[in-house]
Amino acid sequence: MGVNVNPNSRQSGGQSLSIIWIIAGALGIIFGGLLIGTLAPLVLPVQASAESRQVDSLFRFMLVIGGAIFLLVIGALVYSIIAYQGQTWRPVRWSADSRQLHPGNRLDPHPGGDRHHPDDLQLPGLDQHPHCARDNQDVGVVAQRFAWSFNYAITPETLPPDVSIDMLEEPVRTALTSEGGLRFSNQQLHTWVGQQVEAKIRSEDVNHAFWIPAMRIKQDALPGRETSITFTPIEAGTYRIVCAELCGAGHGDMAGTTILLGGGEVELRGAWLVVHPDEQTYLEEFYDVEAVKVLFPPEDPVERGRRLLESGAYPCATCHAPTDMNWVGNIGPNLNNIGTRANTRVAGQTALEYLHTSIRNPGVYLVPGYGNLMPQFNDEPSEPNYMPEEDLNAIIEFLLTQTQ
Questions:
Q1: Residues 210, 212, 213, CA angle at the centre, nearest 5°?
Q2: Are 145 and 247 a contacting pair, CB within 8 Å?
Q3: Longest Cα pair distance anywhere in the chain, in angstroms?
Q4: Largest CB tally within 10 Å, which of 32, 233, 234, 358?
Q5: How far apart are CA 56 and CA 41, in angstroms?
Q6: Dist. CA 53–CA 47, nearest whole Å
Q7: Is the pTM for the entire model greater than 0.85?
Q8: CB atoms < 10 A from the CB of 55, how many?
Q9: Rounded CA gap, 68 and 47, in Å?
Q10: Do 48 and 234 form a contact (C-beta atoms < 8 A)?
Q11: 9-61 per-position pLDDT tens digit
């Protein structure tokens, strides 16, 4: 006795099964994209700025969309491999009419004539900056092989407590009241929680890139052009600054490092972002201390030279290693005993003359085994790597004391 099977019911069952698989696949793609967008950002650094939260939100949104598309494509490939294995594909023949483009098929970039200004558009997860009205803390960022230096302005309005203009020497007073005010340099970038910072970046030689991973900011430093970027720290702490552009043999040294001292203390070396808990702490622990050093320079030129080198105003620490300064650079010649060796380096020249020439024109006298990587420090303010003559003389006076 035969059994009659209704072909319509078989077809209906197959369609239902296909719909179930399509729904399951769609749900898998959606939840897979959400899972990728949730788990991937866990490997990122701590969110230490207001911008980092916005950037990570946008990044997570893009990962969800990208992850879903990735799973869709992979799913379609796997399905095609399984469903059509062993079949022979025939080439598709295209007619001439199918290749024609008709004016009516063109996409209008502004449908209906509705043109939106870019400022009217907002990306998902990227809110308007919450500190737009706050005054920026302007910090000059100078990149040069192979170090970062950060410049801070001192104006009559930002003098430390108990310091007045009348207490200053005439050259310092003149510089303080001139356009742009007085500035001092440091190897670290200091600010405080909640303060919007505008880093104004320039390069003295080749391309560099200013990158603070925890702040989620990166900006190119280009010779002959000033670039800038803003960020607002939201957590106190120390955060590493890195050069993200290959700039030469000492590229790896353009990043913050730590040295373990006795008693478990850690010393920060090189470029770091130091975020203080509040403005008062920033002033007391950093700004006022450094400003006083500049406002009241020591009379001893040797001490002035030491302070200049310690400040990071000139990128000497990453290449040289005088023991007296606790530097560990190995790209350039060791400066130990340079005060003695400089007397015999070039016949007929004194140590002072030799060091002066070596800093102003470093390619003239090359120590065997070292290339001409040292920047040329010029005596004109309009030229790159400007070094005033008084700074140069003070540095030379300090180097002449290195006789051991």
A1: 130
A2: yes
A3: 123
A4: 233
A5: 7
A6: 6
A7: no
A8: 18
A9: 25
A10: yes
A11: 555 555 676 677 677 777 777 777 777 777 766 777 888 888 888 888 888 88
